[in-house]
Design goal:
303 residues; FAD/NAD(P)-binding domain; 2 domains; seven-stranded mixed β-sheet; five-stranded parallel β-sheet
């Protein structure tokens, strides 16, 4: 029996683990992917204070070693079901007959990538279409690729790909970017980056592998093609709430509603990081949520 | 003229600087002490995610280099006065005839150390009494010292001093600690650490230099002395609000009232970090506040 189980080992979940373990709680953390969550798939991080420049995998590993050193138990499982019986949370996981039990639970499942939901997307998933430049970028050395999106992720990953691919098209449905201007400026200095603005992706086309993207100019209605072998989609995030939908703690957009202590309306159930209903989702904000949630879990466990 | 001036270069202020500069704002930061704020005087930091163990000075320097690289202008000045005239903030600083001007202002002045306010404290300030183990600990190699307090800072600095001094008395007015249990456990394994609990400091005594502390047991009313040459006070924090009292943004305890965007009731005036009215004050929470404040300042400047 754990004092607290944390679902999700991104920066929020791992920070919660650090604080809970330092408060002498018995802590377990459950993560279906690699430690780091969305962070592990980020090529370069330059806006987490303390690191001028670090790749997401390295920062993930630093945090993972930190929780390991503190004796946090790590479970590389998917969560199938969560039940609360007599003030105890029972978490059913894939790969273990026995349920994991805890007095308190912290949901830190984060977000997952949105898809464009257009023809050809399923066909060429893994055959040209990717959601992770750091994972798949190296396949496109000296080839043409596209990045779809206009936020920080799209711009950061486009910069990363510009060092690998022969050409990077940035396809964006508006003519302005949500991402930081410093990134736009940097991209404009790259001779192999081309902005394709006011452009709506209509279809992914190819034979065995992706060959081109069919687009429409939003202003002129003109339909045209961009020839690329790789396409990286960064069109936003959606809450990774599959395991928690039945707990009755999510809002109409699918994010978890918490109070200022990161407690949900269910006693002993907390949430932190990108899964929480809020406006700004950064590593710098995730660590805040994790620390506050854990300090309140410590109070809850000692009540 | 700056887009934004930030007062205070602790983790909150420096994070705000990182985010504002990455948003292409012209950013100035004003700090009367060393970059890092309270962080720079912390011996060892083990709860900031990404660093298993780092001294406060090094983490401060990492963040300082990060803002330098982004072109943030640094002013090593004290703030004397702040005025808002026609939507422009004018900051008068010691050491410059000219006022610094900005469209937006972020207050990140943090907290400063509380004092015990007992006889002898002023007399032996710098002659045995210190508020910074990392600064002054080395003066007490193989000598007896005391730490006063029961929070994380007191416990962390006691651990640090236990490696230097021959004996460390931890003087605390209760018999329980607010600080993390992992720290209490670690201290209990140290043979040169002695807990002096339920003890109220009454007076600092000595001749030229501190020689002993007069204490009273809260339960038995017994008065007794602890012979030490050094005493490190960690009895809490108070808001460093001297420069901002007249702005009408502080609550009855002296902290700045902000909304969820870290905006105050005055247009263009934001605050972040430990100076903000809130419950938990950590480096992990300061970076959150700084990021959110800056992203909202960027919006404000572009309105």
């Amino acid at each position: 029996m754990f004092d607290v189980l944390i679902i999700g080992a991104g920066p929020a979940g791992m920070t919660a683990a650090i604080y809970a373990a330092r408060g002498n709680l018995k802590v377990g953390i459950i993560e279906q992917g690699a430690p780091g969550g969305a962070m592990v798939n980020t090529s370069i991080i330059e806006n987490y204070p303390g690191f001028k420049k670090i790749d997401g995998a390295s920062l993930s590993m630093e945090m993972f070693e930190q929780i390991n050193d503190l004796g946090v138990e790590y479970f590389g499982y998917s969560v199938i079901d969560i039940e609360k019986v007599n003030d105890i949370f029972a978490v059913a996981v894939e790969g273990s007959e026995e349920k994991l039990l805890a007095k308190a639970l912290i949901v830190a499942t984060g977000t997952k990538n949105k898809i464009l939901d257009i023809p050809g997307e399923e066909t060429y998933r893994g055959k040209g279409i990717s959601w992770c430049a750091i994972c798949d970028g190296s396949f496109y050395k000296n080839k043409n690729v596209a990045v779809v999106g206009g936020g920080n992720s799209a711009l950061e990953e486009a910069l990363y790909l510009a060092d690998i691919a022969s050409k990077v098209y940035i396809i964006h449905r508006r003519d302005e970017f949500r991402g930081a201007e410093i990134l736009v400026s940097k991209l404009k200095t790259r001779t192999n980056v081309e902005f394709v603005l006011n452009a709506i992706p209509l279809e992914f086309c190819g034979t065995e592998h992706l060959e081109k993207i069919k687009l429409q100019n939003k202003l002129t209605a003109e339909v045209f093609y961009v020839a690329v072998e790789g396409c990286f989609e960064y069109v936003g995030q959606q809450p990774a709430n599959q395991a928690i939908t039945k707990l009755g703690i999510i809002d109409e957009r699918g994010y978890v509603i918490v109070d200022k202590n990161f407690a949900t309306s269910t006693k002993g159930l907390f949430a932190c990081g990108d899964i929480v209903a809020k406006e700004i989702r950064q590593i710098a904000t995730a660590v805040n949520d994790g620390a506050i949630a854990a300090l309140n879990v410590i109070k809850y466990c000692k009540e």
